[in-house]
Every structure is written in structure tokens, then in C-alpha cells.
Description:
Elements: E1 4-5, H1 13-21, E2 24-25, H2 28-56, H3 68-84, E3 89-100, E4 105-111, H4 119-129, E5 134-146, H5 154-165, H6 169-181, H7 197-211, H8 249-265, E6 270-281, E7 287-297, E8 329-341, H9 350-359, H10 368-377, E9 381-386, E10 389-399, E11 402-412, E12 415-421, H11 423-435, H12 442-456, H13 462-483, E13 491-495, E14 502-508, E15 511-516, H14 522-527, E16 535-538, H15 550-555, E17 561-566, E18 569-576, E19 579-584, E20 587-590, H16 602-619, E21 620-624, E22 629-634, E23 637-642, E24 645-648, H17 660-669, E25 673-674, E26 679-680
Antiparallel strand pairs: 1-2, 3-4, 3-8, 5-6, 5-8, 6-7, 8-10, 9-12, 10-11, 13-14, 14-15, 15-16, 17-18, 18-19, 19-20, 21-22, 22-23, 23-24, 25-26
Amino acid sequence: xxxxxxxxxxxxxxxxxxxxxxxxxxxxxxxxxxxxxxxxxxxxxxxxxxxxxxxxxxxxxxxxxxxxxxxxxxxxxxxxxxxxxxxxxxxxxxxxxxxxxxxxxxxxxxxxxxxxxxxxxxxxxxxxxxxxxxxxxxxxxxxxxxxxxxxxxxxxxxxxxxxxxxxxxxxxxxxxxxxxxxxxxxxxxxxxxxxxxxxxxxxxxxxxxxxxxxxxxxxxxxxxxxxxxxxxxxxxxxxxxxxxxxxxxxxxxxxxxxxxxxxxxxxxxxxxxxxxxxxxxxxxxxxxxxxxxxxxxxxxxxxxxxxxxxxxxxxxxxxxxxxxxxxxxxxxxxxxxxxxxxxxxxxxxxxxxxxxxxxxxxxxxxxxxxxxxxxxxxxxxxxxxxxxxxxxxxxxxxxxxxxxxxxxxxxxxxxxxxxxxxxxxxxxxxxxxxxxxxxxxxxxxxxxxxxxxxxxxxxxxxxxxxxxxxxxxxxxxxxxxxxxxxxxxxxxxxxxxxxxxxxxxxxxxxxxxxxxxxxxxxxxxxxxxxxxxxxxxxxxxxxxxxxxxxxxxxxxxxxxxxxxxxxxxxxxxxxxxxxxxxxxxxxxxxxxxxxxxxxxxxxxxxxxxxxxxxxxxxxxxxxxxxxxxxxxxxxxxxxxxxxxxxxxxxxxxxxxxxxxxxxxxxxxxxxxxxxxxxxxxxxxx
Length: 685
């Protein structure tokens, strides 16, 4: 209680001196809140994780956690929502009009506000518009404005860095940590949008100096997050006058984003003029609308343009409307009714997952990046791209007084850097949501965060909070441990067309697999050695337990297969524990991402073999296979490898000239290096 604590939010001389001059007493309520968080999270993790190991029967280590398991649930449920989604089609009507002005000939784009749901009605609409008179009914001009967003919190920085500069959540935090340590920005783990009075004044001074007083508008923001603790300032530059810094390329990019967002938050609104033109159709009761938007004063937009990650939004063009008068007739150049399809909710990106977690009140600024990293490392979630598929759509076009129907095609469903649940993630989620619904409940996780806040405010005592949680949780866990069956995700696909054996997919010890035939437990197999043994095949990376078909499953038993010869030696394609491969001349060559062993060609295989051999030739200087010794070129220069141990080559010794005796002498006289640190290991005696 007598210990003092100094608090600073930026690593600058003034901030640290000020903190030293104004020490605080330790806030034991905050200490207790952190203690409660650690204890609760360890209880959940330490008790659930071993249960998963027993019930999933996998070789890899599994884990569960109060926040990470809820994050996996969000991704798994979104995937199921996408699988269940049935798109609905409708027709979007657009028209292009020619407008003659004194200066030039212009065009005006207008749209029917409502979609037409039936194809025949869309055709009829265009047929009846053929030869119609189009008249400007009304012109509405309204002022508008855009207001800048608040300075960055941890969450909004992660989201904007992902969208604007393509950083992963973990990379954003790594770069922000470096910027903070170098004194360029304030503390980067915060849920506050507040700026200090000094920061606001400095920003105002810089804005007025560089852009003029009319661009300056000091603002104080309030957080919209109900669970925000606001223990720190928003993320901002420590010195507003530093638009540029001396740092690495990625650090500079992130700093520039932070600087622009902070400065923009203290700038004037952008002033707009929004114009809407209503156009009558003489042969129909519906009206067309043309919309335009003109920036009259750019304000904060001079520095910062915000981005919106909304993949379901229609692309709307809004530009300058040419001079028009009510009652003016327009000349139709063309009109189209294009079939559009409704879209399922988009899969999460790392950024949109952070946003969702924050909206639900789950986790804290310090936990978003580690959570997203953990669920990927555990194999519950994959960040990957997805190729689109070709889809046909109908378009009616009215042009030159004729309506024509066209069948066009488009690529749909392509995705980049999205989070997909793996088979393992789906199974773990199903097991936990079924047996521990309270832990996986979104409201429970958010309510726990609220209880931590109450402990921090001294309203409740943390041991009681833990006790109230632990007793029912532990009793439920013991019951599940005793009575729940092992989870395999088994799905029957059908029977083998030749043997009649059942064909199913399930999660095996080393991942998802196909099983043909009846599986016996170890006791049955031991007592019945003559029983027919089932056949197994691992699924390809592009396949999953939920969607694989019987035909696709049986094709996996063609592997390994000979795909051709190279230098009169067979090239064999297959799938192993570490993924798809080509086996050639007793060596294994991994197939690159996106290439499948069932479809890889002879030419592709030869290219893979040659590329790997060329790379190995540049890495390997010499080797003695009988002794498991190699002399290799590494990242930091040549070294000796014996078994799993690496040894430095002493200065003055030429790697290419080392004989076996020379190498053995070095191995016997030096200690192996620590691979992760590049230092010599300590040998216990």
C-alpha cells in the first residue's frame, strides 16, 4: 500500500518527468480486477483444454478459452449462415439520358428506386418504356455535411490498418508497439477516443498554420462503447508537428495513418451539396431518380478519407448533375434491367472480427490480436483466399427502340484474406456450445467483462465472483468428462459401389479423413485378427467434412498415383501428414498452395522438382548421410547440422573445404547453438 506508481501514456521526456513528479498510490481495485481476469481465464483454459484433448482424440494440442472459443463460435456460425443462405434475384433498372447544355453534351444516370422481382415484369417495364417521354418532374438541392471520425482506439486502428494498408491485426500491433517504444505515438492499447487539451491545442496550431483557420474545428469525442474503461488517451502522434518520421517503411505507413486520422478529427466538416432529380415516365406510374453530390468545401477530407467495409453495399455513382429545369424533356440513350442477387453476410476479416468482438463487449484492446492469432495457430480457423465461381445472369437492354435479352456471366463469391473455420474448429465449437453453453454465450462473456469493471470500481469482491462462477462450472465439467462421448464429426456418405462397404468421413488423429469399411475398436481388432480392415485416406486442403461428396471421397483412394516419368523415374502424387506431395527418386516435394495431387500435371511436377533441387543445391554445401551430417548455407552464413543440432563454423574455416574429420572435430569441440536465438546451448552436466 505504500508503493508508488507513475503513469505515462507516451515515451517522451516531458511525459516521463511529469509522471515522476506526480507519483500515485497503487489502485488495488484495478489490481484485483486484473487478478480476477487472470484467475477466471486460467480456470476456463486449464480445465476445458484437457477435456478437449480426451474427447477429440487428436495428435495436436487443443485449447479453449473464454474469449477465443467465442471468437471461433462467431466464425463457425457465420460459415453455417453462408452455407444455408439461398440467394434471391431481382432486377435493377438503370437509364442513361443525353443532356445538351450550352457548354457541352452531358449524360445523366438515373435508376428506378425499387427492384423488380420477376423477370417477366422487368421485360415488360422496358417494353413499355420504349418510345416513352421522359420529363424532369422535380429538382431537389439540399445541403449536407460529413463529419470526421474520432481518433483511433486499438480496435479502430486495427480495422482501418487492415482495410487501408492491408496489415493483419498482429502486424498492426507489432508496428504500433515499435512506434510507441520509439516515442512517436501514445500508448496503443486503449478504448478511449479522448485527446488531451494539450494535444487538441497542438493539432489546432498545426492545422491553422498549414491549411488555414477555416479548416480548424477543435472537437472532444465521447466513446460509443459501453464497456470502455478509457484509462488512456486515444492513439495519437506524440508531436503533432511531425507529419513524417524516421522509421521503417511499415512503421511509417502506420504512423502516417495515425497522424492523418488524428489531425482530421480536429478539422472542419466537409460541406456538400446533394441534388436529387425526379424523372417522370409517360407510360408508367413509376419515377426514376438521379442523384449527385458535390463537395463545396473539403474540410477534413483534404487529409483523410474514411473507408467502409461493406461488401453487400451496391456501387452507387454520385457525381455532378448537369444543369436541368423542371418540365425539361430528356432524351433516353439506353435503359437496362440487370439481374442482381442478394448476398449472404460476408465472412469475417481479422478487422471485421475485431469490430464484432468490440460490439458484443467481448475482450479488451489488449486481447484482440492475441485471440485472433491463437485461433489460427490452434488450427480452428484459417485465413485464406477463395476463388469465385462463374454465374449466369439476365440483362434486358432497351437501345435504338428495341429491347434485347442477353445472358451474361460474372465471377461471384471471390474472397481475399477471410477467416474460414476448419473442420477441427467446427467440431470443437459444436462440442463446447452443446456442453458448455454458458461459457460460449455472447452475453455471458460480455457480462463477465462488466463484472471485472465493477471489481475495478470497488463495487464487488473478486474471490466471490470467481467462487460463484467456478462451482457450477466445475460440476458441469465433471459430468461432461464422465458422460460425453468422443467427438469425431462422423458423416455417412453412402456405400462403395463395388464392395458395398460403408463410406464415411470423420476427424482422425491427424485430421479429417475418409473411411471405407467398418472401424473396430482396439479390443475388437485384437480379438478378431482376421476381420476385414478398413481403408483410410486424408482429405485434401480444399475439402471439408461438411461438403465432400461420395464421388470425391472415393477418388482420394486413387492416391498415391503415378502421374508420369521424369528421367525414366516415376513421379508419384499423394497426400501425407504434412500435405500433398510429389515423390520422386526417394525424395518428397511439397505441392504449392492451390495445387491438388489428383490434378497435378507432369509438366507442373517437373517444374516443382527442378525448383526444389535448384534451391537445395544452393543451400547444401556437403553431406555425409551415414553420419546424419550436413554442411549448409543458412540465413547467417554456413553452419554444420548433425541430426537436430546445429554448430557454428569457426572463423577462418572455409565451409567448402571441410572434410568429414574437420566437421567431426568442430562438433566434438563446440556446443550446439540455440536455433531460436543463435546462441550456444547450455549443456547440463
